[in-house]
Amino acid sequence: MENAVPEFARRLYKEWRDFTAEPVEGIQLMLNDQDMTEVQVVLDGPVGTPYDGGKFRLKMLIPMQYPMEPPKAYFCTKIFHPNIAPNTGEVCVNTLKKDWKSNLGLRHILLTIRCLLIEPNPESALNEEAGKLLLEDYSEFVAEARLLTEVHAYWHVREQAKVSSQKMHQDDHASVDMSGNSTDARTHSKVTQRNNSSFRKALKRL
User: Could you say which of 33, 37, 159, 196 is the most buried, measured as most Cβ atoms within 10 Å of its Cβ?
Assistant: First the structure.
């Protein structure tokens, strides 16, 4: 019986296992068992760049002819970068085009994209504004790239702050409940004492 698993899926799964066995710091790679044609990635912004501290979500669309044909890579997190299209997030890098070879793989692609964040190529710009700023006013380019990173790629910081806030709220609520229960207990004790005293006085009058 012919194996029903496509060749590209077997190749992808092997690459994922190899990546999991020897991970790259700052890069998370996730396969979708239900749809092997789309690979999810979370890439940490490289230290010393305007993207430092951000976490960028990417997707790679894998053709059925992979690895004979290269994947397409897209930033799902908005980013200001000469080689990343501002509207679609498509990544422009030679590795995914004319320089692609079938012996390359996901690890090589992701390392190349990370290098692209460290050393943008303004001569091959999909974002013309970013490319122009990089060449003519580097400090302004850094400021704009940093701003978009803080607005769009700090989602993990906001999620952590939200979780911490919820935990503090739950702890405060628990403290109020405990305090309220303690007050209720003291009030109940005083009422019981008064009732017992009244009962004893009533017995004496009998």
Answer: 37
